[in-house]
Specification:
Elements lengths: L7 H9 L25 E10 L9 E2 L7 H9 L4 E4 L18 E5 L6 H9 L4 E8 L16 H5 L2 H5 L12 E6 L28 E3 L6 E3 L21 E2 L18 H10 L16 E6 L7 H12 L4 E4 L9 H12 L3 E5 L18 E6 L17 E4 L1 E6 L3 E6 L1 H18 L5 H10 L22 H6 L8 E13 L11 E10 L6 E9 L5 E3 L3 E6 L3 E13 L6 E11 L2 E4 L2 E8 L4 E5 L9 H10 L4 E4 L11 E7 L13 H11 L4 E6 L2 H7 L5 H7 L2 E5 L10 E3 L9 E2 L12 E4 L3 E7 L3 E8 L5 E5 L14 H13 L15 E5 L6 E8 L3 E9 L4 E10 L2 E8 L6 E9 L2 E9 L1
Parallel strand pairs: 6-10, 6-11, 9-10, 11-12, 12-13, 13-14, 17-24, 26-27, 26-28, 28-29, 29-36
Antiparallel strand pairs: 1-4, 1-5, 2-3, 3-4, 7-8, 15-16, 17-18, 18-22, 19-21, 19-23, 20-22, 23-25, 30-33, 31-32, 31-34, 34-35, 35-36, 37-38, 38-41, 39-40, 39-42, 42-43
Helix pairs in contact: 6-9, 7-8, 9-10
Length: 908
C-alpha cells in the first residue's frame, strides 16, 4: 500500500506564501517550481476562499455563480466561476469558542486557463474575503515497484519517498551523471544498464546510442557502426563509449570488473543509480540518473585512481563517487588532481574509511571533497566508521544493492554511504540544473538532520548530520552553520643555529600548517595565542592574527619567537595554541602539540597502537639496564638531530591492516634527513617499504638506499618464524631464533642488500628479513621486519644479545681507525697535535661536495659537528676550541660524498 501524505506539501506551500497585504489579506505572486521539471504543486481551476464574518452564508451553486455582493460578483464573472461550495464537511454544533469557523471556507472553480495564483491574489484583495489561496495537490508517497524495494530500509531512513513526491531524477531538466570511480562495474547488469551513461561524442552514425542489444541472446555490445578506432570527440580516448578502464595501465574502453575485490564497483553503482521503478531488483535515491563507470583497479599504481577521477570530471560527471583511498600520505600531486577535477564543476564525495578511527583518509579529507561517514539504521555512528571534524556529512552505511552477474547483495561500509550521498547530490542537481556545485553541496549539508544528541562522544565529528532527501528538495534559503573546525597538520621550527635541534640558548620561531575542515565557512579575523608553561621556554611574542579560509590549509609562518633555557636532559615542551574568532569554533579552539628540546643520547620511539608486534618497551628497558641514557616516547618528533642513535618500532599491520602504526610521509622525511646527517637508526616493522610502495611515496628507492637495500618484496601471507638465522659476515652471525610471540606476522617484508648493505637475518624458506646498512653519509641502519622485542630466546640466540650487537655496532664500532674509502686526494691535517686550546684543521677538496666534519671521543660518541654544508673545490682552514674538553684521545672524521679522511688528536 502506498502511504498517504497528510501535511507535508501543505507545509511547503505555506512556507512559500508571503504576507504582504493590509488587513492580513493573502497575496500570491507567481511561484515557479523550486527546480527542474516536477509534479504540479496546486490543483488547476480551483482555489479556496474564506469570507469574513457577516458577509453572508452562501448556498452551493453550479453554472453561473452569484454572491449578491457586487465586488465578489464582478470577480466571479471575470474568472467565469462555475462552482461554489463549502470546502469542508463538518458538524456546526461541534464548533467551540475560539476555534476556526469552517462554515465560512468555500471552494470555487473556474476554467483552467486562468492562473490559480492570479485568481487567488485577486480574490484576496476583496474587502469581504479574509483570505484566498490555491489548493495544494496531495500525493501518495511514491514507492517504486522494484521487487526488492521493501528490503531497502535505508531509503526510508533518508526520507526518499517524501523526496520522490517532489522530484525524481529522471524528470530533471537535463541529464545529470554520477561517476563511479572504482574497480569496475558490471555495467550490463539487468538493474544498471538502463541508466548507463553513453558518450554520444563517439556516436559516429548519429543514431543516438553507442550500445545495442543482440537478439535473441540479449547481450549488450558496443554499436559496431561506432567502433572506428578514432577519438571522435577529441577527449584523448578512442571509442570510450561508456567510460574507461585505467586498471594496470590498460588502454581499454571496457570498465568492467576484473581486479581484486572486483565486485566493489558494481555494489557502489547500485547505490548511486540502480534502475528504479522497473519492477526489477532494487531502487536508488537518485531515481534513474545516469552513472559513468570508470575503472581504476586496486593495483599498487594508485595514481590510476586519480587519472580515473580526472577522466570523469573532464567528461562531464556532475558527481564523482570515490569509495577508496589511503591513510598514509597527503600527496600534493593528488590534491592538485582533485583540485583540477573540482575546477571542472564536479562534486566529489569520498568515503572516510572503515577503521573506527579519528584518522584522515585521502582523497575524502582533501579540501573541497565531501567526506562521508557511515551510520547504522538508528542514525548512530556505524561501529566501523571513521569519524572526526573532517567529516562533512553522514548517511546509512548498509543496504541491499546490485552485485555481479545480475545478482543482489547487502553490503556495509563508508564505501556504501558515499554513493548514497552522491545520489542525493545528483538528485538535488537535477532539481536545480542551474545551481553551482557549491550551491548543491550547501543544500545537502545544510538540510541534514542533526544527530549529535544520539551520538554522545562523537559530537561535531559526523559532519552536519544524516542526509534528509526531503529537506534537501524543499527547504529554501539554506545556509551552513557558521562554525569553524581547526586542527594542526604540521609543525616545524627554525632555530638560530639552523641545526634542526632545539638546544639550550637557541632562539626559534614556529611554522604551523593548520586546517579548517568546515565547508564554506571561514573567518576574516582570527587571533592565535601560543601558551607554554614549561620554565625553559620563554615566549618573546605569543600572539598572531590572520584570516582562516573555508575548508582549506593555511600557514602561520615564522611566528611566535621563543628562547630555550637551561636543560639537563631531553624533554618534550608542551604548547597550546588558543584561537579566537568572530565565528564559533566547535573543534580545535585549543590545540596542543609538543616539541623535542635538548635531544641527546638515545631516542626510543614506540606508538601505542593495537597489536603486540612492538619492541620499544623491551629496547628501552635493556638500554637503561646497560647504563645508557634514553628518552622513551610515543611522540614522533619532526627532527632526530641531536640524538646519537634512534630506535623505532612500528609493529605489524595484521591481515586487515587494523594493527600496528601507520606512518606518514612526514615521518619518513624525518628518518631520511637524520640519515643524511650520519644518523644511526634501528627500525622494526612488518612492511615498512612495502606500504610506501603501495601508497606511491616519492623517493622510496632513495630511502631504501640509505638503509643499504636495493629491493623489497612483501608476500601477502601470514608467516610465523620457523628458523631465523644470522647471516655470515653480519653482526647477527651465529644467532638463531626458532619462534616469536608476536600475534601478527602478515606481509613480512623480504629484502635484497645493495653495495652498502649486508643480509643480517634469514628466515628459513622465506628470505632475508633484516639488513645491516651503512652509507656515504656515515649513517648506520638496522632494519628487520619481525619485531625484535618479541623474538623467543634460546641457547643459540637471545633478544638481549642481538640488541647488544646492534648497539655496539652503532655506538662503539665506529671504524675510526680506517676511512670508508682511502682517497689520497682528500687530505686533512691537524695543528698543533697534541693541543690544549685551539686546533687548526686544514683540508682540501677537489670538486663541489657536501662536506661533513665531525669530532668523536675514543668510544665513538660524537662530540661536536664542525662543518655540515656544501663547499666548492679549494683549501679550507677551520679552528676548533678544545679547551673545555677532558684530556684524552679524539678523532676528527672528514667526509665528502663517499670519500673519507680520519685524523686522531690528543687533547692535554
Amino acid at each position: 500500500m502506498k502511504k498517504v501524505s497528510i501535511v507535508i506539501l501543505i507545509i511547503l506551500i505555506l512556507s512559500l506564501i508571503s504576507l504582504a497585504q493590509e488587513e492580513k489579506k493573502q497575496s500570491f505572486s507567481s511561484i515557479p517550481p523550486a527546480g527542474g521539471i516536477s509534479q504540479p504543486m496546486f490543483h488547476k481551476g480551483m482555489i479556496t476562499i474564506k469570507v469574513k464574518e457577516g458577509a453572508g452564508d452562501f448556498y452551493p451553486q453550479r453554472g453561473l455563480v452569484a454572491f449578491n455582493i457586487p465586488a465578489l460578483d464582478y470577480r466571479a464573472t471575470k474568472y467565469q466561476v462555475n462552482l461554489l461550495e463549502k470546502r469542508f464537511i463538518h458538524n456546526p454544533g461541534k464548533l467551540k469558542r475560539g476555534m476556526p469557523d469552517l462554515s465560512r471556507i468555500y471552494r470555487i472553480e473556474f476554467p483552467e486557463e486562468y492562473s490559480v495564483m492570479d485568481v487567488a491574489n485577486d480574490f484576496a484583495g476583496d474587502p469581504d474575503i479574509e483570505y484566498a489561496e490555491p489548493i495544494p495537490v496531495n500525493y501518495l508517497f511514491d514507492i517504486p515497484n522494484d521487487s526488492l524495494y521493501s528490503q531497502q530500509s535505508y531509503l526510508q531512513q533518508v526520507f526518499a519517498e517524501q523526496a520522490w513526491d517532489i522530484h525524481k531524477g529522471e524528470n530533471g531538466a537535463e541529464d545529470v551523471v554520477i561517476a563511479i570511480v572504482d574497480c569496475g562495474v558490471d555495467w550490463d547488469h539487468e538493474d544498471l544498464v538502463d541508466n548507463l551513461w553513453q558518450n554520444l561524442g563517439e556516436d559516429v552514425d548519429a543514431d543516438g546510442k553507442v550500445l545495442q542489444q543482440t537478439f535473441p541472446s540479449g547481450e549488450w555490445i558496443f554499436d559496431p557502426d561506432d567502433e572506428n578506432g578514432i577519438d571522435d570527440d577529441s577527449n584523448g580516448y578512442i571509442d570510450d563509449f561508456i567510460g574507461w578502464n585505467f586498471s594496470y595501465g590498460s588502454n581499454d574502453p571496457h570498465p568492467i570488473p576484473g581486479a581484486m575485490y572486483w565486485e566493489h564497483g558494481t555494489l557502489m553503482a547500485g547505490y548511486a543509480a540502480a534502475s528504479t521503478n522497473n519492477v526489477t531488483g532494487v531502487a536508488s535515491l537518485s531515481w534513474n540518473l545516469e552513472f559513468m563507470p570508470v575503472q581504476a583497479g586496486l593495483e599498487t599504481y594508485v595514481p590510476q585512481f586519480y587519472n580515473a577521477t580526472i577522466y570523469a570530471a573532464e567528461n562531464g560527471a556532475d558527481v564523482i563517487s570515490c569509495s577508496w583511498g589511503n591513510y598514509w600520505y597527503n600527496s600534493q600531486a593528488n590534491q592538485e588532481a582533485i583540485n583540477y577535477a573540482l575546477s571542472q564543476g564536479s562534486i566529489i564525495v569520498g568515503a572516510t574509511g572503515n577503521h573506527n578511527k579519528f584518522k584522515l583518509w585521502y582523497p575524502s579529507s582533501y579540501p573541497g571533497v565531501v567526506s562521508v561517514a557511515a551510520l547504522n539504521q538508528n542514525d548512530q555512528k556505524a561501529s566501523y566508521s571513521n569519524y572526526g571534524p573532517h567529516v562533512k556529512i553522514s548517511a546509512p552505511g548498509s543496504g541491499l544493492t546490485t552485485a555481479v552477474d545480475n545478482t543482489y547483495t547487502s553490503a556495509s561500509g563508508t564505501s556504501c554511504s558515499t554513493p548514497i550521498v552522491g545520489a542525493l547530490m545528483g538528485l538535488v542537481k537535477s532539481y536545480h540544473p542551474n545551481w553551482t556545485s557549491d550551491q548543491v553541496i550547501t543544500q545537502v549539508l545544510g538540510t541534514a538532520d542533526d544527530i549529535d544528541s544520539i551520538n554522545p562522544g562523537y559530537e561535531n565529528q559526523l559532519g552536519s548530520g544524516r542526509i534528509n532527501a526531503f529537506r534537501a528538495l524543499t527547504e529554501t534559503a539554506v545556509t551552513l552553520a557558521q562554525e569553524i573546525a581547526l586542527d594542526v597538520c604540521h609543525i616545524s621550527f627554525q632555530d638560530s643555529d639552523n641545526d634542526k635541534s632545539l638546544q639550550p640558548g637557541d632562539t626559534a620561531t614556529l611554522d604551523l600548517v593548520l586546517r579548517n575542515y568546515n565547508y564554506g565557512v571561514g573567518s576574516d579575523n582570527a587571533t592565535f595565542t601560543l601558551v607554554s608553561d614549561h620554565p625553559s621556554i620563554v615566549l618573546l611574542n605569543d600572539s598572531y592574527s590572520c584570516s582562516i579560509p573555508p575548508d582549506n590549509y593555511f600557514t602561520l609562518e615564522d611566528v611566535f619567537p621563543f628562547t630555550v633555557g637551561d636543560a639537563d636532559s631531553t624533554f618534550l615542551a608542551e604548547f597550546r595554541l588558543v584561537t579566537t574568532s568572530e565565528k564559533e569554533i566547535t573543534w580545535g579552539d585549543t590545540l596542543s602539540f609538543s616539541l623535542m628540546v635538548a635531544p641527546q643520547d638515545l631516542l626510543v620511539w614506540q606508538d601505542k597502537g593495537p597489536g603486540n608486534a612492538y619492541s620499544g618497551d623491551f629496547i628501552n628497558e635493556y638500554l637503561i639496564d646497560e647504563g645508557f641514557n634514553t628518552f622513551y616516547t610515543s611522540h614522533f618528533p619532526s627532527s632526530f638531530q641531536g640524538f646519537d642513535a634512534v630506535f623505532l618500532s612500528f609493529g605489524n599491520f595484521g591481515s586487515d591492516l587494523s594493527m600496528g602504526t601507520f606512518f606518514t610521509m612526514e615521518m619518513t622525511n624525518t628518518i631520511k634527513e637524520y640519515l643524511e646527517h650520519g644518523g644511526r637508526i634501528f627500525l622494526d616493522c612488518g612492511t615498512f617499504f612495502g606500504i610506501q610502495t603501495y601508497c606511491n611515496f616519492p623517493g622510496i628507492e632513495y630511502l631504501k638506499g640509505l638503509f643499504g637495500i636495493s629491493g623489497t618484496y612483501f608476500p601477502m601471507i601470514n608467516n610465523p618464524i620457523n628458523l631465523l638465522t644470522g647471516c655470515n659476515g653480519s653482526i647477527c652471525e651465529g644467532l638463531e631464533f626458532t619462534a616469536s610471540d608476536q600475534n601478527a606476522v602478515w606481509f613480512i617484508e623480504t629484502m635484497t642488500p645493495n653495495e652498502h648493505g649486508l643480509a643480517a637475518l634469514e628466515e628459513d624458506g622465506y628470505g632475508t628479513v633484516a639488513i645491516q646498512g651503512y652509507g656515504e653519509f656515515g649513517q648506520k641502519t638496522f632494519y628487520m621486519s619481525y619485531a625484535l622485542g618479541r623474538l623467543a630466546d634460546n641457547d643459540q640466540g637471545t633478544r638481549e644479545e642481538l640488541l647488544s650487537r646492534i648497539v655496539e655496532w652503532f655506538l662503539v664500532g665506529l671504524d675510526i681507525d680506517e676511512p670508508v674509502i682511502d682517497n689520497h686526494e682528500l687530505t686533512m691535517n691537524l695543528y698543533p697535535n697534541p693541543a690544549s686550546e685551539i686546533v687548526d684543521i686544514r683540508f682540501t677538496i677537489y670538486d663541489f661536495r657536501y662536506i661533513r666534519l665531525k669530532m668523536y671521543d675514543i668510544y665513538g660518541k660524537e662530540v661536536r659537528t664542525v662543518s655540515d654544508e656544501m663547499k666548492s673545490a679549494g683549501e679550507y682552514s677551520v679552528k676548533v676550541d678544545v679547551s673545555n674538553l677532558p684530556p684524552g684521545m679524539y678523532v676528527f672524521r672528514l667526509q665528502a660524498g663517499n670519500e673519507c679522511a680520519v685524523e686522531k688528536l690528543v687533547v692535554r
